[in-house]
Amino acid sequence: MIKNIVNDKIWYMIYLINCFKKEGKVTNMKLKLIIITLFIFTLCLFQLNAYAENNISQNKAIDIKVDNIGYKSADISWVTTGEVKSTLLYWESQFYSPNTIETIQAKDHKVSLNNLKPNTKYFYQIYVQKPDLGLVVASDIYSFSTEDLYKIKDIKVDNIGYKSADISWSTTDEAESTLLYWESRFFSPNTIKTIKGKDHKVSLNSLRPNTKYYYQVYTDRPDLELDMVTKLDVTSEVYSFTTTENKITDIKVDNIGYKSAEISWNTTYEDKSTILFWSSKGDMVNKIETIESKEHKVSLPYLLPDTKYYYQIYSDISDLNRGNSSEVYSFNTMELFKITDIKEDNVGDESAEISWNTTDEAKSTIMYWS
């Protein structure tokens, strides 16, 4: 700006000297004095211009950034290399009627904007002033948008088990929220409402193992801009998660007798289990429930001798038709009074010992001949 003034003044004074010289109004001595004065004046203006440009470049606004954007507030900060006062201008995108905030003399500047409108785009510009020179340096024009009122954010699901899960989310302001969740088989949602707050958390229980669930969050809000009593819903996207399996492992059958057997297994989680067993002769299905544990063991009583039995284990006793179940296994009970482990000992010229076992306590008869 000053450089332009200097150039204009020089050319104007040269023009005047030429005019005076043509009219004979200027002598050679006066001309020399005018040229010397003009040279000194030009040198001073150039030095002033260099000083002004140096101060302007040193005191412009840099590192301009906006933080903590909410639905009605935001923070704007910037740095100047010299300690100067600054002025922030900001306005809505709909029209240019800027608000102004002046900072104190400093290098680091920060302004907090409040009472902004939700879901609105704002523009802002920073002016750095040099009172001693009467100069103003303007930054570029920047913009930001405030958040929506009662916006739902930070939705996440944690602690997913085989029949439970935790869902949490936040709202930009204190509000009541409603969680809807349903199974993948059909849309018949369950609803849980939270109390008024910014941070919300819901624990889901009695879920089905190994099942996909969908969920969505609703938040009611008053339409403040229209000043209506009617409430508008803020709705999140639809999310999903899948419950884990309560796996059944290490199934084995031991101590098989002619009227009893023992079956044991493990589960991933500590919970009750149910074993179903039935015979190959078409008898009714019998059921035995275990206590809450990871290691399970049951004794099957009153079995029939020399009979094939089938059995299956469920880890979810709430619904045997959909619960996590094992394959169908089988075993055979022993024969009644079955003779086993026959062996000969101490065989001599005139004697011998013969031993054997029976499946239950009983009298036995041995027949021998030569």
Overview of the structural elements:
With 370 residues, the protein is mainly beta. The chain contains two helices and 25 strands. The strands form seven sheets. Strands 3, 4, 6, 7 and 8 form a five-stranded antiparallel β-sheet that branches. Helix 1 (2-23) runs antiparallel to helix 2 (28-58). It is rod-shaped and about 170 Å long. Residues 1-7 and 222-232 have low confidence and may be disordered.
Number of helices: 2
Low-confidence stretches: 1-7, 222-232
Largest beta-sheet characterization: 5 strands, antiparallel
End-to-end separation in angstroms reads: 139 Å
Percent of residues in helical segments?
Answer: 10-25%
Specify the overall morphology: rod-shaped
Structural class by SSE content: mainly beta
Oligomeric composition of the shown chains: single chain
Can you give the mean pLDDT? Answer: 80
Radius of gyration: 46 Å
DSSP summary, beta strand count: 25
Short account of what is shown:
The chain is built from 2 helices and 25 strands. It is mainly beta. The strands form 7 sheets. Strands 3, 4, 6, 7 and 8 form a 5-stranded antiparallel sheet that branches. Strands 11, 12, 14, 15 and 16 form a 5-stranded antiparallel sheet that branches. A 4-stranded antiparallel sheet has the order 20-19-22-23, with no helix packed on it.
Draw up the topology in text.
Elements: H1 2-23, H2 28-58, E1 61-67, E2 74-84, E3 86-92, E4 99-102, E5 106-113, E6 121-130, E7 135-138, E8 142-145, E9 152-158, E10 165-175, E11 177-183, E12 190-193, E13 197-204, E14 212-222, E15 231-235, E16 239-242, E17 248-254, E18 261-271, E19 274-279, E20 286-289, E21 293-300, E22 308-314, E23 329-332, E24 339-345, E25 353-358
